[in-house]
C-alpha cells in the first residue's frame, strides 16, 4: 500500500471566502483513504479578516472538518498572541510539532501538547514528523518578539537522532521557512512539506521531495510514496472540488456575526491585489493604501510594503468593510516617522528585492504616495527620488506615514526604526475604511515608480495586466 501525504499551507485570508475553504475541505475528503496523512505547514490560522475578529479560531471550523494529523506554527499563527495560539492548539484535533521555537527557555506550547516531533502510523508505515519555523519570526511578527527561534537544520538533526529507535519508515519535515533547501542538503529526510514563501514548488534535492503550495487555499499537494521507495507528486486545485457545506455555513455565520458585510464604497474598475501587482512595482492597490496613510496623517510621504498587502479577489463593485480589512489584515497602527533626506533615500534603496533577504530578487517592496522614485533595475541602483515634485535633499527632514510594523522589523526597510517614530494613529485597516468613506476608491497609476535600463532610457511604469490598468 502507498502512503499518501496531503499538504496545505498558508491558508491565511482564504477563510474570508467560505466557499474556497469549504472546497479545500471537500478536496481533502475526496482524496483521503486509510493510508493518508493530512498535514499543514503554518499560517493556517492568520492573517485575515475573520482571523482578526475570531483571534484565529475561525480555522477550527476547517480543522474539525478535515481532522489533519499534524501542523506546525508559522509566523502569522502568532499574530494574536501566545495565549490565542495556545487555545487553538488545545481545541484543534491535530498534533502540533515545533522543534525550534522557544519562549522563556522552554519549547513553546509544551504545556498544551506541542511536541518537537511525533511518529504516526498510516497503513503499513511509521512516519516520523518534525516541525520547524522561520528564525525571522520574532522580527517579522511583533506579537512574537519575545520568542527564541533556533537553527532549523540543527533542530531537524536533533529530532532525527531522537527518532532513531522508533522504527521510522518515512521522515517528513514540516518547514515554515524561506530556505528549507538546506535541510534537504544536510539532513537525511524523505519529504519536506514547505510553507511561508507564497510560491508554488515541486522539487527534488539529493533524493528529498520538496513541495510548497501557494498561499490562499487554492492548491492541495498530494505526495505518494510507494513501497519500492519511488515518490510522485500531484498538484490538486480546489476550484472544482465538492463543497463541504458544514464548513461553508460555519464561516458564513462567523462573518455575519462579526458585522463585516456593510458597504463602504463602490469600485467601477476592478482593482487587483495579487503578487503580480503588489511586488512588481507601482500598482493601483498599493497607491490606494499609501494615499490613505498620507491623507490620514498629513505626512509628506506615505509608504506601504508590498508584502503587507495580502492577495485576494479584486476590489470590484460594492466594497465592504471586510474587503478593506482584508487588504492589510493586521492589528498594527499607522505611524508618522521623521527621517533625514539621506535616510529616506536609503529607505527607497531598500525597496529592491536584491537588497532584501526575503522574497525574490526581482521583487519591489515599496508603494508610495507623495513621492516619485526612479530605479535602474539592470544596475540595481537608485537614480532619483522626489517628494511632491521636488528632489529629496539629504539634509532636510521629511515625515513618512506607514505601518508600525515597518518601524519594528529589521527584515524590510531596516533604516526605518522605532526611534524615528514621532506619532501614532489609527490601526491601518481603519484608516483604509475611513479614507474610502470620505474620499472614495479611485486609484490610478501615475509614474510613482519608474524603471530605467542600462542606457538610462526611462521605461514605462510597472508591468500590469489588462484587468488591472486598462
Could you please describe the fold and organization of this structure?
The structure is a single chain. A six-stranded mixed beta sheet has the order 7-8-10-11-13-12. Mean pLDDT is 93; it is low at 456-470. It has two domains: 3-250, 4-Layer Sandwich (Purple Acid Phosphatase, chain A, domain 2), CATH 3.60.21; 261-469, 5'-Nucleotidase, C-terminal domain (5'-nucleotidase,  domain 2, Alpha-Beta Complex), CATH 3.90.780. Helix 10 (284-297) crosses helix 14 (428-438) and helix 11 (321-327) packs across helix 14. Helix content is 27%, strand content 31%. The protein has 15 helices and 26 strands. The protein has 470 residues and is an alpha/beta fold. Helix 1 links the parallel strand 1 (3-8) and strand 2 (36-40).
